[in-house]
Amino acid sequence: MTAPTPQIPLIDLNDGRAIPQLGFGTYQVPPADTEKVVTAALEAGYRHFDTAQMYGNEDGVGRAIAASGVPREELWLTTKLNNSFHERSAALEATERSLEALGGRIDLYLVHWPLAMHDDVARVWEVMEEVRSDHPVDSIGVSNFTPANLARLSEAGLSTPTVNQIESNPYFVNDAVRAACADRGIAVEAWSPLAQGAVFDDPQLTALSEQVDRSVSQVVLRWVLQRGDIVFPKSSNPERMRQNLELFDFELTDEQMASISALHNGTRSGPDPDTFDWRG
Ligand SMILES: NC(=O)c1ccc[n+]([C@@H]2O[C@H](COP(=O)([O-])OP(=O)(O)OC[C@H]3O[C@@H](n4cnc5c(N)ncnc54)[C@H](OP(=O)(O)O)[C@@H]3O)[C@@H](O)[C@H]2O)c1
């Protein structure tokens, strides 16, 4: 049976909409398992889901949602334009496929990677603006955009993205990009908040988790929330899914927050946007 959804704060976006600050990530959830995993996440109480054309699992997300009976207006669905579809006609076709998979509406649609070594990000963003006007796509944003990529959009006189989804975790805090987003009124979504599992081997995080009597995952996710970012941890395990939702009945002190930020050592969990060149 579906658990009650905890009260999740909303983050205001610069287009007048508001996004739930905590959701569920689906990267590396295999397509064949996605319907089952997302159904379990819905049962655990998640209502905000992050998928992507690149993950190959939008169909499973859409099937789980359709079967759940949860009213669509209670859900937030984010997906992302894949790297090979930046050109206008390919982007429009890919958008149609995503809409079909996800039940006809997308809350937030992101440019997944800038690929600025090949493409002018301003041209891609013009296509996103067209998609938002002509399709049931409510908000548009970017992912993995550097400050230079964001500056290119403003130089071209285009609209400001609502969000920038970037890697951010204790080992790669990404504060320069977060500051560039804050300056422009762009909300930050923190991907790989658990450094894809690396946080669980960290003695300092283990010690802190014992001190506050919470799991390492809860401590790190709470750190992301207190920094004001949006977050959507991935887990295929229903018990861990539930644990990752229980973040609103404790607080980290300023000192504890600073001790987690001090773990930054510049180690990324994923690719560097300045060099990532995958267009599969
Ligand atoms: N825009 C982008 O370029 C981009 C890139 C990467 C990710 N993302 C988004 O960000 C989301 C989150 O990032 P991520 O999936 O890379 O990694 P993550 O959420 O940092 O970590 C996921 C890993 O942590 C484990 N885990 C989760 N909760 C746990 C808990 N309570 N206790 C112990 N282990 C736990 C999971 O294992 P189990 O499944 O076994 O629990 C999995 O191995 C993605 O799913 C995706 O939606 C976006």
What can you see in these coordinates?
There is one protein chain. This protein is α/β, with parallel strands linked by helices and 280 residues long. It has helices spanning 31-44, 58-68, 88-101, 121-134, 147-155, 175-184, 203-212, 216-226, 238-243, 254-261, and strands at residues 10-12, 18-20, 24-25, 48-50, 76-81, 106-111, 137-143, 163-167, 187-191, 230-231. Helix 2 (58-68) links the parallel strand 4 (48-50) and strand 5. The protein contains 10 helices and 10 strands. 44% of the residues are buried. The longest helix is centred in the N-terminal third of the chain and has 14 residues, at 31-44. The strands form 2 sheets. An 8-stranded parallel beta sheet has the order 3-4-5-6-7-8-9-10. It has a two-stranded antiparallel ribbon with strand order 1-2. Helix 1 (31-44) runs parallel beside helix 2 (58-68). It has a domain at 10-193 and 228-234: TIM Barrel (Alpha-Beta Barrel). The mean pLDDT is 97. NADP nicotinamide-adenine-dinucleotide phosphate is lined by residues 25-28, 50, 112, 143-144, 165, 191-197, 200, 215, 217, 232-237, 240, 243-244, 270.
Order of helices and strands: EEEHEHEHEHEHEHEHHEHH
* Overall shape: globular
**How much of the residues is beta strand, in percent?**
15-25%
Radius of gyration of CA atoms, rounded to a whole number = 18 Å
Q: Give the CATH H-level superfamily of one domain.
A: NADP-dependent oxidoreductase domain
Q: How many strand units?
A: 10
Distance between the termini: 39 Å
Task: Write the CATH fold name of one domain.
Answer: TIM Barrel
The biggest beta sheet is recorded as:
8 strands, parallel
The CATH class of one domain is identified as: Alpha Beta
Total of DSSP H or I helical runs spanning 4+ residues: 10
Mean pLDDT score: 97
How much helix is in the residues? 25-40%
CATH architecture of one domain: Alpha-Beta Barrel
Q: Which structural class matches the secondary elements? A: alpha/beta
Could you tell me which ligands this complex binds, including any ions or cofactors?
A: NADP nicotinamide-adenine-dinucleotide phosphate
Flag low-confidence runs. none
The largest beta-sheet arranges its strands as: 3-4-5-6-7-8-9-10
Keywords: NADP, Oxidoreductase
GO molecular function, one term: oxidoreductase activity, acting on the CH-OH group of donors, NAD or NADP as acceptor
InterPro entries: AKR, Aldo/ket_reductase_CS, NAD(P)_OxRdtase_dom_sf, NADP_OxRdtase_dom
Family: Belongs to the aldo/keto reductase family.
